[in-house]
């Protein structure tokens, strides 16, 4: 992947991002267009297209993404009031960047789980 993938380029330091946490295998950085007072993206440094391929291909790495997301939630003071962890996946899931990323959202009540009810 590498140069074709936006988040691989952020991991490589080729595109700037506001990094809030880094581990040997994961990177957490602020979303460029935040949808909540706290909106951080957590990615594995290795390229997987989505959470399905990551979860099946490397469950241990998926766990490291979760551990980093939990540490970010703690650092950002979200553990008391709660937060939302989201993996948009594929077309129906509204995924726009095809390098798996967890959205850590919080800092205010986030409203219903989905923007609208599905018939
Ligand atoms: P998705 O829709 O794929 O689940 O989420 C992609 C997210 O990446 C969006 O929330 C969008 O604002 C964020 N994003 C897109 N381009 C950039 C970028 O260049 N830098 C950062 N930090 N976030 C980005
Ligand atoms: Zn990538």
UniProtKB/TrEMBL annotation:
Transmembrane segments: none annotated. A motif (Histidine triad motif) lies at residues 99-103. Residues 6-115 form the HIT domain. InterPro entries: Histidine_triad_HIT, HIT-like, HIT-like_sf. This is Histidine triad nucleotide-binding protein. It comes from Micromonospora andamanensis.
């Amino acid at each position: 992947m590498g140069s074709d993938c936006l988040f691989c380029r952020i991991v490589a330091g080729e595109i700037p991002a506001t990094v809030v946490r880094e581990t040997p295998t994961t990177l957490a950085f602020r979303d460029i267009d935040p949808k909540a007072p706290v909106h951080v993206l957590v990615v594995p440094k290795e390229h997987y297209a989505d959470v399905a391929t990551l979860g099946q291909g490397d469950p241990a790495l998926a766990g490291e993404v979760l551990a980093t997301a939990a540490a970010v939630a703690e650092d950002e003071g979200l553990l008391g009031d709660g937060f939302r962890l989201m993996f948009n996946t594929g077309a129906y899931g509204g995924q726009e960047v095809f390098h798996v990323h967890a959205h850590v959202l919080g800092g205010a009540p986030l409203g219903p789980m989905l923007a609208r009810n599905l018939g």
